[in-house]
Amino acid sequence: MLPRYAVGAGLVLALGVLHLQLDNELPLAAQWQLVTGGEPDGFEEVRYYYAALPRVILAVLVGAVLGTVGSLLQQVTRNPLVSPLTIGASSGAWLALVCASVWLPALAVDERALVAMVGAAISVGLVLIIAGRNGISGLPVILAGMATHLLMGAAASAIILLNQEAAQGVFIWGTGNLTQNDWNWVQWLWPRLLVLPLILMLAPRPLTLMRLGEAGARGRGFSYGPVLVVLLIGALWILATSITAVGIIGFLGLIAPNIARSMGARRAGDELCTSALLGAMLLLATDSLAQAAGDWFGELIPSGTAAALVGAPALVIFAHNKLSHGDQTALSLPHGARRTTWMTWGLAVGVLLALVLLTLTYTPEASGPAFSLPFAWPSDLVWSLRAPRLLTASAAGIGMAVAGLILQRLIRNPLASPDILGMSAGATLALVIFTLWTGTSIYQAGPGVAFLGSLVVLAVLLVIGRRSHYAPGIVILVGISLAALMEALVHFVLAQGTQSAHIILGWLSGSTYRASADRSLMLAAGVAALVLLVLVFNRWLTLISIGDPMARARGVNVARARLVLLLVVCALCALVTALMGPVAFVGLLAPHVAALLGARRVLPQLVLAAMVGMGLMTLSDWLGRTLLYPDQLPAGLMAALLGGSYFIFLLTRRRLG
């Protein structure tokens, strides 16, 4: 154990020295003189003393915090996939800081650490409530963390869109940047991290007793609840102060403890200390990569982006190795009506017609007597604005609903949908990278680029999922990885302060603002053609959803049929993402609602899910246009809020029985 610590400390020192040599022309003697207290003289020495040295020290401090907090959370929950990212702490801190920056700017400046801690604590508390005591050590806490992360991200995006100028400064914080110009942040941070050595000294015994289980710990006079609360508060405090200083840096809190255990750290204290050393090493290494890449490309590459590029694949690898089949149990289809009735179909058609009429005729700006209703048939000008938005939202809802149904049937996983499995994130990531690479507007990138992104994710899912029989835990964590990677890149783009940053943010929220007649007709025609193709091949989907042996016995080439249907999913996802923007949760919610209404066979569920998806997106677009009039919110963002709330309800309903 002691040799491991000595080697770890030596590697931290070596990585720190190598980091200091990046873009540095000072001889080692001059560097040593500055480190030992010499006064800087000249530009190179000033830059070394006030920029390079504070950056390395911050990387060591923050990396140690992330490794320790990750290990602490994993030992408390006995879940190797828990980290500040997957349990929702980072998104809670992000949302809290956005809210404070907009509505309490003085508090956001003076007490940012406290604001971030409160946000992280609320988010983690919500995740633990959703998962329940029995779900903390398995997949439910990861699902709850993902749902909370997406919900809080949608809320933060809505606040930023409505308050662009007030929230602009938080983008840089959201990228996770270690760049320094003086010693102020180091001097601010280190006294607040004095809790860290206390945790390393006092936490091992309680954590060791926790491994005995609640009954065993109580038998030895250990009060399980209060100690757990104290440990979580301490962990959230040092986490909040760290991300206040440098921003959100994900994945390191997940990777470091897993590497520590693979190196033989079995005891609680040993794992904490080894994780702290590994966290410092990993952050020094990823920050060195970020700085080297920034020098190569001539752009500032945030450390959080580099950590995401390294950590996203690591999360997939650890998920594949650590999740057991007991953790990968899928949710069953929701119980509801046994079959659809004519009344159900009539009600669905009536609700859709009502939503269409409401979208076209509701006029919140209409003036007149107090008793007059705000409804009027649209003029030619209003029709030219509303009709493309209505058609775009409706086609997007149908496309994502059908894509979600195909995925749920093909891999027999009711949690599957293009956004949950990461296919929407793949399309989005491809479009954002295309925009960065070419310098063009994101609206000029066509569905072909998005299709390639979705196709890459599909290939990853097929390779990884085949071994685990497409277990929910594996495919969902692939989606989490891609979403976190995309978020880091998007924060990087927005932090550049370019003119297109707000346009990209609006597009990422699934906006219909720029819907034109041509683009809406293109989307509707593409979705209609692909849905018609699914209707033609609905027999394949029916037989494969029963089981591959049954499909083969009925003469279906299962491999070819599955590939064709998955390519249809990629095409639907690419069309919607390219022409409207990413749409979350619709592909999950619509098939579930259709099943609740009694559509259990493929064809009825396909039609009813399409109607539900169309209705949800139409309602979301109308709410986004009228709820905060004259301000507007994107339809995709409203759908994420509605669908995310349903997903949390689904998880809570499963826990309650």
Describe the structure.
This protein has 657 residues and is mainly α. The protein contains 30 helices and no strands. The protein starts with a helix and ends with a helix. The model is unreliable at 324-331 and 366-372 (pLDDT under 50).
Task: Give keywords.
74% helix; mainly alpha; globular; 657 residues
Radius of gyration: 26 Å
How many beta strands in the DSSP annotation?
A: 0
Work out the helix count: 30
Largest sheet: none
Order of helix and strand elements from N to C terminus: HHHHHHHHHHHHHHHHHHHHHHHHHHHHHH
Tell me what portion of residues adopts beta-strand conformation.
Answer: under 5%
N- to C-terminal distance: 45 Å
Shape: globular
Mean pLDDT rating: 81
Low-confidence stretches: 324-331, 366-372
State the share of residues found in helices, binned by percent: over 70%
Q: Label the structural class.
A: mainly alpha
Compact description:
With 657 residues, this protein is an all-alpha fold. The chain has helices at residues 2-20, 28-35, 43-77, 89-103, 105-110, 112-131, 139-162, 164-167, 170-174, 184-192, 195-202, 204-210, 213-219, 224-246, 252-262, 268-297, 303-322, 342-361, 380-410, 423-438, 447-467, 472-495, 501-508, 517-536, 538-546, 548-553, 558-579, 586-596, 602-626, 635-655.
List the topology elements:
Blueprint: H1 2-20, H2 28-35, H3 43-77, H4 89-103, H5 105-110, H6 112-131, H7 139-162, H8 164-167, H9 170-174, H10 184-192, H11 195-202, H12 204-210, H13 213-219, H14 224-246, H15 252-262, H16 268-297, H17 303-322, H18 342-361, H19 380-410, H20 423-438, H21 447-467, H22 472-495, H23 501-508, H24 517-536, H25 538-546, H26 548-553, H27 558-579, H28 586-596, H29 602-626, H30 635-655
Helix pairs in contact: 1-3, 1-16, 2-3, 3-10, 3-14, 3-15, 3-16, 4-6, 4-7, 6-7, 6-14, 7-22, 7-30, 10-14, 12-16, 15-16, 15-17, 16-17, 17-22, 18-29, 19-24, 19-27, 19-28, 19-29, 20-21, 20-22, 20-27, 21-27, 22-23, 24-27, 28-29, 29-30
